[in-house]
Amino acid sequence: MAHTAPALVEYLAQLIANAESKNEQIRLSKRCPLQDMQMLRLRVKALLLEKHNKPERNTTLPADYVASKHKYFRRAAVNNGKA
Length: 83
Prior knowledge:
Blueprint (H helix, E strand, L loop, with lengths): L3 H14 L4 H8 L7 H16 L10 H16 L5
């Protein structure tokens, strides 16, 4: 029985992570044996974290944009804040 528990937990965790509603998640979690419930919670949290992770955004600005901004601010500094 010890070898089948992780497989069952993994299967239920995947079902819960892909469930449409909270009620469906609760219904699926009731199938898990009580002694494996903590393992199920941890696996569901890990799956949901992977599912909701977003890729990092590229935040570098184009060189021509940066150059035009520097030019504008230099001009404003020379003209007492008036571009």
